[in-house]
Design a protein that fits this description.
Layout: E1 3-8, E2 18-26, H1 41-45, H2 53-61, E3 80-83, E4 86-89, E5 91-92, E6 101-123, E7 127-135, E8 138-143, E9 146-151, E10 160-168, E11 171-197, E12 201-206, H3 212-223, E13 226-227, E14 231-232, E15 236-240, E16 249-257, E17 263-269, E18 275-280, E19 287-297, E20 300-310, H4 323-337, H5 342-351, H6 359-377, H7 383-397, H8 405-416, H9 435-451, E21 456-457, E22 462-463, H10 464-485, H11 496-509, H12 513-532, E23 534-535, E24 538-539, H13 548-552, H14 558-567, H15 579-584, E25 605-611, E26 617-624, E27 627-633, E28 647-650, E29 656-660, E30 684-688, E31 691-697, E32 706-710, E33 718-722, E34 725-730, E35 733-739, E36 744-745, E37 755-759, E38 762-771, H16 778-786, E39 790-793, E40 798-803, E41 807-812, E42 815-819, E43 822-824, E44 834-837
Parallel strand pairs: 14-20
Antiparallel strand pairs: 1-12, 2-5, 2-6, 3-4, 6-11, 6-12, 7-10, 7-11, 8-9, 8-11, 13-15, 15-18, 16-17, 16-19, 19-20, 21-22, 23-24, 25-26, 25-44, 26-27, 27-28, 28-29, 29-32, 30-31, 31-38, 32-37, 33-34, 34-35, 35-38, 36-37, 39-40, 40-41, 41-42, 42-43
Length: about 850
């Protein structure tokens, strides 16, 4: 029996296994109701604190399992085994950066997840080894066929830990682990075994007759692989290898754009190759592609996740002279390239005449409607985002040839039987508690009650009139919070468009004048924020909730298409949320807001405002045409972070720089926070005009002991890394980034030439934007900053320097930002905020 062998020492995590799984079983629980307010407490605490009733029922029904190993049965890669009437193979797991055995994903309905892992620990002597066991769900461990631990905290998406001791015998020790959890929406299905105390061990993973050295080489090859850039707008896409290929293999590329179909491509990679041509950008779905690269060699599969944005830049040249032209073009683009949902169907129905519609196209649209109805009837999470558009489908096409009488009956039954709020019975895991979901649910309820006022809705057992009355009061409460507090998910590229969906539905279809007027007022405010906080039409500011796909995929964010439709700034893209409702509505964002995007060359804009309940966040944006600096001032200083994006300098869709403390080690993980989106620990941030300071103090309990900056050098015209500084140039706009602990530009692997790492748990970063209006050229800008005296004391976390434009600047963890001894504060602003253009 051949084996892969790895050293294993103190503080390492046991992450080399073969795995049997994951086994998924959809669960149905008793119908129940919930209570809860839309107060965004879950955002403050950084995780989902609202427990669905089904979890308690699941835990009560759960039965402990027996070992899957029978007698002297050996386990190894490739072995087939049955568990619960399903047969799977034991397969090698390649952790890359991850210390955790983990599957992260999104399950729309309650699902029981189960998996088995196996490995061998080799000890030179008998010893008592100490480990820290962590899990979100339940874990059961056998060593040498003996149960040594069963730990079942079932704390959803929050790792719970305990210290355990394992008696290891001299020689081989067989370790078998069963772990399970109930998936509810976003789920971290995981466990971790960290080695705390004991003599050095080795790990052996049995691989049958596979050749170990080839596997080592191929794993290393994939570890060093990368894409040259994060956004491709024309030409060919190459997947690059750090070294020449020494062993021929098959490469499988699985690319998936959110809410679109997965695309699978296969390539034969020959010895001597240094890259593989994946194809032209037009061969791929437009959007941010989550890419799984799989090396297949004999019966071994080595998999790693990557991500790239695909956007055909020729779409920039679409006719955009009037908003009517832009709305028409947006519908046509969506009908052809959009996400496969009800929004695409509506775009197609409106942009294509029935008599000219290809039969296959119509059938594809009807299949999408069928899929959406099934998902809504099954109460998939985010089904409310689809439900809201069926009211437009009914309004626009009820009597058309598109919608047959039987299909209309299915739609009506779907609306009557839906669950419209948490106080209605249900056993689903739909998420109600964020501002955007609350608005959509309330809007759906109002329009449903309005449409079928005299019908009985079986789920709540009330009439449409009663639903309407409930929804009207709930919406008034939502609007009151919005106008008084703004949004706790401030300026969020993924979630602002969801709010636009609900507001436009109310603006277009609500019978209540009060509701329509409030919807129009709210839309005006949102589009004003969108214009102020965008750089050339791309929403690249501080954001209350964000994902890596939005941070790195600005050509394809939903807010980018909203900006393009509204003012011709930004670009149109594949995104349907927001864009389709706006294109079909009579609502027109104020043309005056375009002035906040198209600033004259010698003008500067500053904007400060407050959003969220109880002064949740103070925001500051400073920009001129082509460069913007944005931050969340003193936001939750030193606290654990979630998905908050608190500091960014922007020069457009690709040339963006931000600083954060990674939330996890996996560079392409889905954590909240993840490697690039959010913060493990939040910094203290202050900003004044074109200068921002971020001070980090990271607790020892966090696995990541560095901070870093996303700096896509390929997107800038020039850059220079000098000592503790990096200087970047885009056109005649400049940026300087400084870190007190020094900067290391990553030169290999997935983040090659786009990540600056600064070591240490205490660190101070400075960002300084500028342009040719202040410095005649890039060299003058660099020379000025390099000569600037900077004093930093990391121990006390205080610092000062003399800025050529501002004067004497001082700052500290316990001190305010001061410019020439004057305290600079952004506090107690209103939701509307203070806007200055000079």
């Amino acid at each position: 029996m051949n084996k892969l062998t790895y050293k294993f020492k103190k503080n390492d995590s046991l992450n080399r296994w073969i795995k049997l799984g994951t086994f998924e079983t959809e669960k149905t629980f008793s119908n129940s109701t919930m209570e809860g307010e839309i107060n965004n407490e879950w955002l403050v605490k950084g995780h989902a604190i609202h427990e669905f009733p089904g979890r308690k029922e699941f835990i009560e029904q759960r039965v402990s399992v027996d070992s899957i190993i029978k007698g002297d049965h050996d386990l190894y890669h490739g072995l087939k085994q049955r568990y619960k009437d399903k047969e799977k193979k034991w397969e090698l797991q390649f952790p890359f950066e991850s210390p955790v055995v983990e599957d992260e994903g999104f399950w729309d309905i309650p699902t029981h997840l189960e998996a088995w892992t196996f490995t061998e620990l080799h000890s030179e002597e008998n010893q008592l080894a100490t480990f820290k066991l962590s899990t979100c769900g339940g874990v059961k461990i056998w060593v040498n066929d003996q149960i040594i631990e069963e730990f079942t905290p079932f704390t959803r998406n929050v790792l719970s830990s305990k210290v355990i001791s394992i008696h290891l015998q001299k020689g081989i020790n067989k370790v078998l682990v069963y772990y399970d959890d109930l998936a509810e929406r976003d789920t971290k299905f995981s466990f971790q075994l960290e080695y705390l105390k004991g003599k050095e061990l080795s790990i052996s993973v049995p691989i049958d007759d596979q050749e170990p050295q080839s596997i080592y080489e191929l794993e290393y090859l994939l570890y060093g692989a990368y894409f040259e850039r994060d956004s491709y707008t024309f030409g060919e896409i190459n997947f690059e290898f750090m070294n020449e290929v020494s062993i021929p293999f098959k490469l499988i590329c699985k690319s998936k754009v959110e809410r679109c179909q997965m695309e699978i491509r296969e390539y034969e990679v020959c010895t001597g190759s240094t890259s593989i041509l994946l194809g032209n950008i037009h061969d791929f779905q437009m959007g941010y592609n989550a890419i799984e690269m799989i090396i297949e060699f004999n019966e071994i599969k080595i998999s790693r996740n990557f991500g790239v944005e695909i956007y055909p830049i020729e779409l920039e040249h679409l006719n955009s002279s009037t908003i009517q032209d832009r709305k028409k073009n947006a519908l046509e683009i969506t009908a052809n390239y959009g996400e496969h949902n009800i929004y695409k169907v509506l775009a197609g129905f409106h942009s294509l005449k029935f008599k000219d519609m290809d039969k296959n196209k119509l059938e594809s649209y009807l299949l999408i409607i069928d899929k959406e109805i099934k998902q809504i009837n099954n109460r998939h999470d985010c089904s409310d985002f689809s439900m809201i558009m069926f009211f437009r489908l009914i309004h626009d096409f009820k009597s058309s040839k598109y919608i047959s009488i039987p299909l209309m009956k299915r739609i009506k039954d779907m609306i009557l039987n839906y669950r419209y709020w948490i106080d209605e019975p249900g056993n689903d895991v739909m998420w109600f508690f964020s501002e955007n979901h609350a608005l959509i649910f309330h809007s759906c309820e109002l329009l449903a009650g309005q449409l079928y006022s005299n019908e009985i809705f079986p789920n709540a057992n009330i009439s449409g009139k009663e639903h309407y009355a409930r929804a009207e009061q709930r919406l008034i409460g939502w609007f009151n919070r919005f106008f008084n507090e703004g949004l706790a998910e401030w300026n969020s590229a993924p979630y602002i468009p969801i709010n636009v969906i609900g507001l436009i539905a109310l603006y277009d279809f609500a019978e209540s004048n009060e509701i329509r007027d409030k919807a129009a007022k709210a839309l005006d405010q949102i589009f004003k924020w969108l214009a102020i906080n965008s750089c050339d039409g791309f929403l690249t500011c501080s954001q209350g909730r964000v994902y890596e796909k939005e941070l790195k995929g600005n050509y394809n964010t939903q807010t980018t298409s909203l900006s393009w439709i509204a003012w011709g700034k930004g670009v149109i893209n594949y995104s349907t949320f927001g864009a389709v409702p706006l294109s079909l509505s009579n609502y027109i964002p104020s043309i005056n807001y375009k002035d906040y995007i198209e600033l004259p060359k010698n003008k500067f804009l500053s904007y400060s405002n407050q959003q969220g309940p109880n002064g949740y966040v103070n925001l500051y944006t400073y920009k001129q045409n082509g460069v913007m600096l944005s931050s969340a001032i003193n936001f939750k200083i030193g606290a654990r972070g979630y998905q908050e994006h608190v500091l960014q300098a922007s020069f457009g869709p690709e040339a963006n720089v931000w600083i954060n403390h990674p939330g996890e080690k996996v560079t392409q993980g889905k954590g909240r926070p993840s490697y690039w989106a959010g913060n493990g620990y939040l910094p203290k941030i202050n900003q004044y005009k074109y200068l921002a300071v971020a001070i980090f103090s990271i607790d020892d309990d966090h696995a990541i002991d560095f901070t870093h900056a996303y700096v896509p050098t390929f997107a800038f015209d020039d850059y220079d890394l000098t000592n503790n500084w990096i200087f970047l140039k885009k056109g005649d706009k400049y940026l300087a980034v400084y870190a007190s602990n020094g900067l290391e530009l990553v030169r290999t692997g997935l983040n090659k030439n786009r990540e600056l790492i600064s070591r240490g748990r205490k660190n101070i970063w400075i960002l300084r934007t500028s342009s040719s209006l202040e410095f005649s050229n890039f060299e003058t800008f660099k020379e000025n900053l390099i000569k600037t005296p900077i004093y930093i004391d990391n121990a006390t976390q205080k610092g000062s320097y003399v800025d050529s434009g501002l004067g004497n600047v001082t700052f500290g963890w316990n001190d305010p930002l001061k410019i020439n001894k004057q305290i600079i504060e952004v506090i107690d602003e209103t939701v509307m905020g203070k806007l200055i253009i000079n």
